[in-house]
Amino acid sequence: MRATVIHAPHDIRVEEVPDATVQQPTDVVLRVLRACICGSDLWAYRGESARQPGQRIGHEFLGVVEEAGSGVNGFAVGDLVVAPFVWSDGTCAYCAEGLTTSCAQGGFWGSVGSDGGQGEAVRVPFADGTLVRLPAAAASDDRLLTALLALSDVLGTGHHAALGAGVRPGSTVAVVGDGAVGLCGVMAAKRLGAERIIALGRHRARTDIARAFGATDVVAERGEAALAAVRELTRGEGAHGVIEAVGTEQSMRTAIDIVRDGGSIGYVGVPHGSGTGVDLGAMFDRNIALRGGVAPVRTYIPELLPDVLDGTIDPSPVFDLSVGLDGVPGGYKAMDERTALKVLIKP
Q1: CA dist 216 to 162, 173, 192, 324, 325, Å?
Q2: CB–CB of 14/331 below 8 Å?
Q3: What is the pLDDT of residue 126?
Q4: Which backbone phi and psi does 23 adopt, to 5 degrees?
Q5: Among residues 45, 86, 139, 228, which one has the fewest Cβ atoms lying within 10 Å of its Cβ?
Q6: What angle do CA 88, 94, 95 make, to 5 degrees?
């Protein structure tokens, strides 16, 4: 089969690799119908996250079950399913508490020895604890299938950030980051009842999506000018909740500066850079809460799925470039150069 591998920074290739096979009774083999490139994949692409030459890459995908191990009870050949970006056994104490990303037997697609999502097929460990079945009819609806793909990561991650930010009906929320996760954070805040949603971003195509997703205000300024703009919009108080969806020191500093005293920051940007930007003294003095981390997307899919199926929310606009498997290297280049927001892959 063919799959995407990374050999070195800026060296993404689509190569022939061993076929995905059932190795344990709890495995299934999934034929990939849709996958995509994540903003976090770019850290490996840019050389900021270490990878072994030839390592698989990609962690967002959905597809059809082609083979199921003898111990799989919840799925059969032909089922359409979505996979969260972390597999989990579904039985441990952490899984029972909904923190599937801390499952002792869990793991990330594309880690050493595992298949990546950007390929023709994927071996899925612990299928019963990991996968979520989708309506078979969705396979013939291109827009819906694309929207459902967002459940594998960015939609659930945006939701996780909104929960961490304490979004509630009538609240004011600011979103730092205009990537796919930040835009899904806007959507999540709207879904949870935020009255005012301030999107920080200066790329018109992205802020147009933010407005379509529910943003009431857009702040295009940067630095001190951005802080002043948010303060003006919030009568000098700041936002009740801030979604931090970038992961840099500057973005965290911005989040702390624009959150209201007693407010919360929901952080889901993968940390990278020279520091955390967290001023514990300022947070202590201002009673600011900080919650977030790796989103337990598997826990959120059952809650979010009905709203995607009935059209209440439609995250499909975050995918603004579509490629086949051969076009994946170019897709990385497009996202790295910010000429694409999020690249959809149709193997």
Answers
A1: 16, 10, 15, 36, 37
A2: no
A3: 98
A4: -115, -25
A5: 228
A6: 45
Q: Is 239 helix (H, G, I), strand (E, B) or coil?
A: strand
* pLDDT per residue as tens digits for the range 263-296: 999 999 988 765 666 888 999 999 999 999 999 9
- Phi (first) and psi of residue 97, to 5 degrees: -85, -5
For β-strands 259-267 and 289-292, DSSP reports them as parallel
Q: How many helices (H) and strands (E) does the chain have?
A: 12, 18
Could you tell me if 119 and 1 are in contact, meaning their C-beta atoms sit under 8 angstroms apart?
yes
Report the Cα 179 to chain-centroid distance in Å: 10
3-state SS class at 211: helix
Write out the two tokens for 48. Answer: 């900021």
Give the SS3 label for residue 195: coil
In the chain, the amino acid numbered 96 is A
329 pLDDT more than 60: yes
In terms of Cβ atoms closer than 10 Å to its own Cβ (0-12, 13-18, 19+), residue 283 is middle
Nearest to 324, CA basis, from 54, 7, 36: 36
- Is the separation of the CB atoms in 77 and 85 below 8 Å? no
